[in-house]
Task: inverse folding
């Protein structure tokens, strides 16, 4: 048989399989979604607070997230959200950007991924000012949570 005819048949099988998978097999939850919304969010590592501000963010599944992470400290931090493959160093007194689509529903932690010490370097050993004034804080306290909600499940 003509080899071009074979190529056409193989092509039809591959494309047809993709269409059939999309139409009949793929679950709603795994379908790529986009709300068309872009959320620009700034998260700041507050100077000598070992805190990401804000510590909680809520977005919709399918939102495109453009994150700006500001490091006010004179030493490096990191910013990671495992679920969306984000892991970046945030150098001292610098700002980084990260972009992703919030494809999964759930609560996903974000955290500092670079050992950055703790408040024992401060006079008194505790954080001054802010929400955690007077508390001992450090690298492992520098965490937050991203809530990704599903529009679909909430309207049911
Ligand atoms: Cu850290």
Result:
């Amino acid at each position: 048989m003509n080899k071009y005819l074979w190529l056409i048949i193989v092509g039809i099988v591959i494309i047809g399989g993709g269409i059939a998978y999309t139409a009949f097999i793929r679950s709603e939850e795994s379908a790529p979604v986009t709300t068309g919304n872009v959320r620009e969010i700034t998260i700041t590592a507050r100077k000598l607070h070992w805190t990401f501000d804000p510590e909680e963010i809520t977005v919709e599944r399918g939102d495109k997230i453009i994150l700006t992470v500001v490091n006010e400290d004179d030493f490096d931090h990191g910013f990671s959200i495992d679920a969306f493959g984000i892991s970046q160093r945030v150098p001292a007194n610098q700002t980084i950007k990260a972009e992703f689509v919030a494809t999964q529903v759930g609560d996903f932690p974000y955290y500092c991924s670079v050992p950055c010490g703790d408040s024992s370097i401060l006079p008194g050993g505790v954080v001054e000012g802010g929400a955690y004034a007077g508390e001992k804080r450090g690298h492992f306290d520098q965490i937050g949570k991203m809530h990704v909600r599903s529009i679909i499940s909430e309207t049911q």
In short: The mean pLDDT is 92. DSSP finds two helices and nine strands in the chain. The pocket of copper (II) ion is lined by residues 77, 112, 114-116, 139, 142 (CB under 6 Å). The beta strands are 38-45, 52-53, 56-60, 64-71, 77-81, 86-90, 95-101, 106-111, 143-149.
